[in-house]
Design a protein that fits this description.
This is Dehydrogenase/reductase SDR family member 11. The structure is a single chain. Helix content is about 45%, strand content about 15%. It is α/β, with parallel strands linked by helices and about 240 residues long. α2 (about 25-35) links the parallel β1 (about 15-20) and β2. It has helices spanning about 1-10, 25-35, 55-70, 90-120, 145-165, 185-190, 195-200, 210-220; strands spanning about 15-20, 45-50, 75, 125-130, 170-180, 230-235. It is globular and about 50 Å long. The chain has a 4-stranded parallel beta sheet with strand order 3-4-5-6, sandwiched between helices. Strands 1-2 form a two-stranded parallel sheet. It has 8 helices and 6 strands. The longest helix has 28 residues, at about 90-120.
Length: about 240
């Protein structure tokens, strides 16, 4: 997604090595070349990974360990929605949302923490890109199950924070919860009705991917003793 591209691009102004897992890495390969030609000091490394498949996630973390020793910051940005209402939706769509929005996030978090613990990293960060849908239920049947998965992300992030404290580590966990962001998300969500998707973004001045990237940078730049739990952000014109 464009959002993930910009989240990945923003830290490249700093000296970091960043691995990006996506189902289809061609777009990231193009971005990696652009970052290199722009002279960024960081490195963006595309990695093809189906986040609904645990074995592929584990293989990705294994490759990261081999090539780069491990993970210091994990940004869980993958997310999707299907038009599957609670009373009439298809189980396949529900399961896919749980697999990507909830389970993949949890698996990536677990593996990232393992990586940090193995290397005695005490100042790592886990950032979950959530949604305002994780804080209130949208009055649209098409989005109710999606909201349920995002409420899970809210609970998971707080649970991660508590478990990190129990582990007596200074690794931090943060949610970033945007409202409507102008990406291809709506076009995928309403893939059978592109006019409806376009209307979502035409109805107001939406957040941009750059806004989410800036929020990630802000969270990562907080002093070590500061725990930012959640950044809720929406367009000024958005009501809910």
């Amino acid at each position: 997604m464009l959002t993930s591209f910009l989240i990945k691009e923003e830290p490249l102004h700093q000296s970091v090595c960043l691995s990006a897992g996506e189902p289809g890495p061609s777009g990231i390969q193009k971005l990696a070349a652009e970052c290199q030609s722009a002279g960024y000091s960081g490195t963006l490394i595309p990695y093809k990974c189906d986040l609904s498949n645990e074995e592929e996630i584990l293989s990705m973390f294994s490759a990261i360990k081999t090539l780069h020793k491990g993970v210091d910051v994990c940004i869980n940005n993958a997310g999707l929605a299907h038009n599957e209402p609670l009373l009439s939706g298809k189980t396949e769509g529900w399961r896919n949302m749980i697999d990507v929005n909830v389970l993949a996030l949890s698996i990536c978090t677990r593996e990232a923490y393992k990586s940090m613990k193995e290397r005695n990293v005490d100042d790592g960060h886990i950032i979950n890109i959530n949604s305002m849908g994780g804080h209130r239920v949208v009055a649209s049947a098409d989005e109710h199950f999606y909201c349920a998965t995002k409420y899970a992300v809210t609970a998971l992030t707080e649970g991660i924070r508590q478990e990190l404290r129990e582990a007596n580590t200074h690794i931090r966990a943060t949610c970033i919860s945007p409202g409507i962001v102008e990406t291809e998300f709506a076009f995928r969500h309403h893939n059978s009705d592109p006019e409806k998707a376009a209307a979502v973004y035409e109805s107001m001045k939406c957040l941009k991917a750059e806004d989410i990237a800036s929020a990630v940078t802000f969270v990562l730049g907080a002093p070590p003793h500061v725990q930012i739990g959640d950044v809720q952000m929406r367009p000024v014109d958005q009501v809910l």
